[in-house]
Write a structure and sequence with these properties.
- The complex is a heterotrimer of chains A (286), B (295) and C (286).
- Chain A has 286 residues and is mostly helical.
- Chain A folds into two domains: 16-153 and 243-282, no CATH class; 156-231, no CATH class.
- Helices cover 65% and strands 2% of the residues of chain A.
- Chain B has a domain at 255-295.
- Chain B is globular and about 65 Å long.
- Chain C is α/β, with parallel strands linked by helices and 286 residues long.
- Chain C folds into two domains: 4-244, Rossmann fold (3-Layer(aba) Sandwich), CATH 3.40.50.300; 247-286, no CATH class.
- Chain C has helices spanning 47-54, 79-85, 102-106, 108-112, 117-131, 147-159, 177-194, 205-211, 229-234, 236-241, 248-258, 270-285; strands at 4-13, 21-31, 36-40, 62-67, 70-71, 86-89, 165-169, 197-201, 214-219, 222-228.
- The chains are: A mainly alpha (286), B alpha/beta (295), C alpha/beta (286).
- Chains in contact: A-B, A-C, B-C.
- The A-B interface holds A 134-136, 164-165, 167-168, 171-172, 175, 216-217, 220-221, 223-231, 234-241 and B 62, 64, 90, 93-94, 97-98, 100, 102, 104-111, 113-114, 117-127, 130-131, 134, 150-152, 166-167, 170.
Chain lengths: 286, 295, 286
């Protein structure tokens, strides 16, 4: 059933990562992403990976859950890796040459780094954001971070209200889609056979009622909100206050040091580690 | 003028016509020349078939619609006055809450307690005060343990209780229930009706309940029956429901006990008036039949 | 032989997930041909699950659903055909309206069956006659109609499919007493004229008592009681044990009998109790 899908895949818990202020996590995620793009050497990637593993351990979310999160992008990763391997032209002799296809060392390295980078990006940001932060506190965090924009008349709280309502109604509308599909199937509608045009046409009996109902819901909700004194132009107070604690400042420090570390390590020359083969490999710049 | 102050709602010759955008022909008014007064602490049921104007009447009282004609005074403020501003309207609305029909379409937030807090947040109250009100409102509807749940996972009756809590958190003196029980199953209905009654009895909140369940209306202290935009009956339920034949003609029914006694009277049994509750009906029938058995 | 039968049917929601839930367990029910059978039970008693099994929207986890003695899941690819033989009117069916005119919307199901235009026209005419839709509305958009009218159009849209079994889930929910009466009267007349087997789901004991021949009571995923309306409603205590209400007039009649009044016969409708009292008076006088 489609209604089993949960949006954003939030896993409630009480770990340090769960308890952090959403703003800390948002900024942390940005720093982490910057770090990923600043990482230029294998050593830097080792550091990034260690850091990601540490976050997973802290969150107490199982590794199998995280692997499942990567599954949807596996095909894209394979596809781009193949492109990288075959399309990258290296300086030296190709490792393999077959007909017009030539594989260079650089291509393989690039494919590996790209894959690691994407995986770290997905795992790291979902660790910090979706997995450990409820959608509502994420919205609150965003609103708070963007609140300076209100000074230049960008209606930040309106966007945040829109996002909250969207999150509230997605499960309702998913359920409704299920219901409408069942009703039309019960009237002999066929969604799964025929040409593409026919199938697209077969969606009309689902889409029209869904839109009609969504607009009706929107209208009723608007009236209900106004009856509860909601006004776009009026300042609202908040039940939940976001507040930075000691752990947030500490986490900031950790993220900052980490980012600095990644940048620094990426610039280290192999000479620092004695200049041996291993050192040269670890400090190989991509 | 002083006289008017004692009413929570005072409607004088109210008329409302929906504007028909599609074609210009005359649309009959949804509410037509309606006058009535509601005193503080009353428990009123409004009955009427679909399209009788009962929902329109509620929307007028809550200022969702503006009367086409007539004068409306809510909580001592004349809503139809020239100098009544939008600011005044929002001031009043905190005092006159409305619970709607579809429980899904009035919940805003993804967490129960944040939804209950929505009204007080709009009023700009201090955080501690909001917290106090949210807790009090949730306990008034018996939903404290669901404070951190997602609304979409609750039953219809539970959602409606959250909606009521959301209104209570604004501390209104009047609550309008616009067919709030019609989408619920019997258990959900019973829960909502008992909350309504408790709020009226214990908190002194004026309750106006629009419904087409006769058994719910029979529990109110006053019933108003709407038909074709006008008030057909207005009085104590035992009085209103005694007009069985007229009610049928208006597309309504009386509670089954009343219907039975009415039928028996037609067959020559005699009894004064119409009892409403089951126990009263049993007593009345015992008396009626006991008389027969003695013959 | 029953028209529609469930044999040892169980149904599990979200099988093999942490959300697994047994909705129906070992259910055995027979629906007699040409009879109107009421289905009662609390929300969550398994009623709605049962409804979705009857026309093949869901497949039982265990057990079989038999239509005219044949397993409806014998050829899973032909399940769409079963759905046209067992018509289903879902709760608040006005959600399913989508077409440009009332006529086209009611004709949606017969058109999906590939019927001739003439036959479609005939079926639309019959369906609107029984659901009390004014012929003048046929060329209007279904979205212009009032709530009650939409409900009628939606029911007519399933009637027009010409199924031999009709399952209706709370067809009168949310309507006023007159609308309720008219719709149920129409369904009753249509069923009796065409010899349909009808399964009527309702919370209203009054409607059950008035319109049904047989009643099935569900409780916690099992069949709690089944039999004729007389048999089920005469055991008011068993119904009240699971928190179901019996019609007010039935409770009054039961109380009168307890007081020693010899009431006999149908004691759960106003009409029935009135007649019983009149009979008693006649015999008492005689």
């Amino acid at each position: 059933m489609i209604s089993d899908i949960t949006l954003g895949q939030f896993f409630p818990g009480f770990s340090l990562l769960h308890k952090l202020d959403p703003r800390t996590k948002l900024i942390g995620a940005i720093l982490f992403i910057v770090a990923i793009f600043m990482a230029k050497t294998p050593l830097a990637f080792v550091l990034l990976t260690l850091f990601t593993v540490a976050m997973i351990l802290v969150s107490r979310i199982s590794f199998s859950v995280i692997l499942r999160g990567i599954r949807p992008v596996v095909y894209i990763l394979i596809f781009t890796s193949i492109l990288n391997i075959f399309m990258t032209k290296g300086a030296g002799e190709p490792l393999v040459a077959f007909w017009v296809l030539k594989i260079y060392k650089e291509g393989i390295i690039r494919a590996i780094f790209m894959t690691v980078r994407v995986i770290l990006l997905i795992v790291g940001s979902s660790m910090l954001l979706t997995y450990t932060t409820s959608p509502i506190s994420l919205t609150d965090g965003l609103e708070s971070l963007l609140s300076p924009l209100a000074k230049i008349h960008i209606p930040v709280h309106v966007f945040s209200m829109m996002m909250t309502i969207a999150l509230r109604f997605i499960p309702t509308l998913v359920e409704e889609t299920d219901k409408i599909m069942n009703a039309q199937k019960s009237r002999g509608a066929d969604f799964s056979s025929g040409s593409l045009v026919r199938r697209a046409k077969a969606l009309i009996p689902i889409i029209v009622p869904l839109f009609v109902s969504a607009f009706k819901r929107a209208e009723e909700l608007a009236v209900a909100m106004e009856c509860r004194c909601y006004r776009v132009d009026k300042k609202r107070s908040k039940l939940v206050k976001l507040s930075f604690g000691a752990r947030d400042f500490l986490s900031f420090a950790v993220f900052a040091v980490f980012l600095a570390g990644v940048i620094l390590i990426s610039r280290m020359s192999p000479a620092l580690f004695g200049g041996g083969a291993l050192a040269r490999a670890l400090c190989y710049r991509i | 003028m002083e006289d008017k102050k004692k009413y929570v709602i005072l409607a004088e010759h109210l008329t409302y016509v929906y504007e028909d955008e599609s074609d210009a022909h005359d649309v009959p008014p949804a509410v037509s020349d309606v006058s009535f007064a509601v005193e503080a602490g009353e428990y009123i049921a409004i009955l009427g078939h679909n399209g009788s104007g009962k929902s329109t009447l509620a929307k007028l009282c809550n200022m969702i619609l503006t009367p086409t004609e007539g004068r409306l005074t809510v909580l001592g403020r004349e809503v139809t006055a020239e100098d009544f501003t939008e600011e005044d309207m929002f001031d009043l609305r905190a005092d006159i809450g409305m619970v709607f029909q579809n429980p899904d379409n009035q919940l805003v937030a993804t967490v129960v307690e944040e939804d209950v807090a929505f009204g007080p947040e709009n009023l700009g109250l201090a955080r501690e005060e909001i917290r106090r009100r949210v807790n009090a409102a949730l306990s008034a509807v018996g939903m404290e343990e669901y404070a951190h749940h997602a609304p979409h996972k609750l039953s219809g009756g539970q959602k409606q209780r959250i909606a009521i809590a959301g209104i209570l958190a604004m501390k209104p003196s009047v609550i309008l229930f616009d067919e709030s029980t019609s989408m619920l199953d019997p258990l959900g209905r019973a829960e909502v009706v008992s909350i309504m009654e408790r709020l009226n009895r214990e908190e002194g909140i004026t309750v106006i309940h629009i419904t087409h369940y006769m058994d719910e209306a029979a529990r109110a202290s006053r019933v108003i029956v709407m038909n074709d935009g006008r008030i057909a009956f207005d009085g104590h339920p035992s009085k209103v429901f005694s007009n069985v034949e007229r009610l049928h003609a208006l597309g309504l029914e009386a509670p089954q006990g009343v219907e039975l006694i009415y039928e028996l009277k037609k067959e020559g049994f005699s009894h004064e008036g119409y009892p409403l509750t089951e126990a009263e009906c049993i007593d009345a029938l015992t008396l009626m039949l006991g008389g027969e058995a003695n013959v | 032989m029953y028209k529609l039968e469930l044999k040892n049917v169980s149904y599990l929601y979200s099988k093999n997930t942490p959300f697994e839930k047994l909705a129906l367990s070992d259910v055995n029910i027979g629906f007699e041909a040409g009879k109107i059978t009421g289905l009662i039970g609390h929300t969550g008693s398994g009623k709605s699950t049962l409804v979705n099994l009857l026309n093949g929207l869901n497949r039982p986890t265990e057990g079989t659903v038999l239509l005219d003695g044949k397993d409806i899941w014998e050829k899973p690819k032909e399940i769409a055909k079963i759905r046209t033989e067992v018509g289903l009117v879902m709760q608040y069916p006005e959600y399913q309206l989508f077409d440009e005119t009332v006529r086209a919307d009611i004709g949606f199901a017969p058109r999906n069956l590939g019927l001739e235009e003439e036959e479609i026209e005939r079926r639309v005419a019959e369906a609107i006659a029984f659901t009390g839709i004014d012929g003048a509305l046929l060329d209007k958009s279904p979205f212009e109609l009032s709530g009650g009218q939409k409900r009628r159009v939606a029911i007519a849209g399933v009637m027009a499919m010409g199924s031999s079994v009709l399952v209706l889930d709370e067809p009168a929910a949310g309507l006023d007493p007159r609308g309720r009466r008219e719709i149920l009267d129409g369904i009753h007349a249509y069923a009796k004229k065409n010899g349909l087997t009808v399964i009527l789901v309702s919370h209203s004991m009054e409607d059950m008592a008035y319109y049904c021949d047989n009643v099935i009571v569900m409780n916690r995923g099992r069949v709690y009681m089944q039999g004729t309306v007389d048999a089920v409603f005469s055991d008011a205590e068993a119904l009240m044990d699971i928190g179901l209400n019996v019609p007010m007039v039935a409770r009054i009649a039961a109380a009168l009998r307890k007081k020693g009044f010899p009431l006999e016969g149908t004691l759960y409708t106003v009409e029935g109790v009135k007649n019983a009292i009149l009979r008693m008076r006649k015999e008492g006088k005689a």
